[in-house]
């Protein structure tokens, strides 16, 4: 890990690697951590981690660039890969929302919730307020299950039905709600959880 951190931390790479390994266990987990947790773990090496975060943002921007020219279509392998890369490997539940415009064109995506190992929370008001702000016509929800179980919980099923009903009343299409693991995606729409 220290070798990979040398461009960011220079002579302090060994010390930073030790701190991050102690706190997160791996570089991947450190990079997936929320910014405030990463900087707190870095301690006196926070400036180096800010550079690391900037590199992470650069990679994220490059990945999103490919999405801009696509339709939001859950059968698209590139979209599935993008979603898995964004949240599939995280160790706490995260909710990724992809907003679409006319013709299901990709507008933007945002992580709108970070939870614990088995729950994530987001209010419907926050979700739909953001959809209206960006002019979305459609919303695709995706959240990960760190347990590796790629099936919805009863709470997932209830929340999806409620959000589907609200979306319909607000004339915003709820495209799907995906459950994501490291290797799989489960479509709640395809499984009939929107009825």
Automatic annotation (TrEMBL):
<dbReference type="Pfam" id="PF04002">
    <property type="entry name" value="RadC"/>
</dbReference>
<keyword id="KW-0862">Zinc</keyword>
<keyword id="KW-0482">Metalloprotease</keyword>
<dbReference type="InterPro" id="IPR025657">
    <property type="entry name" value="RadC_JAB"/>
</dbReference>
<keyword id="KW-0378">Hydrolase</keyword>
<dbReference type="InterPro" id="IPR037518">
    <property type="entry name" value="MPN"/>
</dbReference>
<dbReference type="InterPro" id="IPR020891">
    <property type="entry name" value="UPF0758_CS"/>
</dbReference>
<keyword id="KW-0645">Protease</keyword>
<dbReference type="InterPro" id="IPR001405">
    <property type="entry name" value="UPF0758"/>
</dbReference>
<protein>
    <recommendedName>
        <fullName>MPN domain-containing protein</fullName>
    </recommendedName>
</protein>
<feature type="domain" description="MPN">
    <location>
        <begin position="72"/>
        <end position="194"/>
    </location>
</feature>
<keyword id="KW-0479">Metal-binding</keyword>
């Amino acid at each position: 890990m220290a070798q990979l951190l040398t461009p960011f931390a220079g002579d302090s790479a060994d010390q930073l690697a030790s701190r991050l390994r102690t706190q997160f266990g791996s570089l991947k987990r450190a990079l997936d951590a929320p910014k405030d947790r990463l900087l707190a773990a870095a301690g006196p090496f926070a400036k180096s981690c800010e550079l690391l975060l900037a590199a992470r943002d650069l990679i994220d921007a490059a990945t999103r660039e490919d999405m801009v020219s696509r339709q939001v279509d859950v059968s698209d392998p590139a979209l599935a890969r993008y979603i898995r890369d964004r949240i599939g490997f995280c160790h706490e539940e995260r909710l990724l929302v992809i907003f679409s415009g006319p013709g299901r064109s990709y507008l933007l995506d945002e992580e709108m919730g970070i939870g614990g190992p088995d729950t994530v929370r987001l209010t419907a008001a926050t979700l739909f307020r953001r959809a209206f702000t960006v002019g979305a016509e459609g919303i695709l929800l995706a959240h990960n299950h760190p347990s590796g179980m790629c099936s919805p919980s009863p709470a997932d099923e209830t929340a999806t039905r409620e959000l589907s009903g609200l979306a319909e009343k607000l004339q915003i299409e709820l495209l799907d709600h995906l459950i994501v693991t490291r290797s799989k995606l489960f479509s709640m729409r395809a499984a009939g959880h929107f009825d």
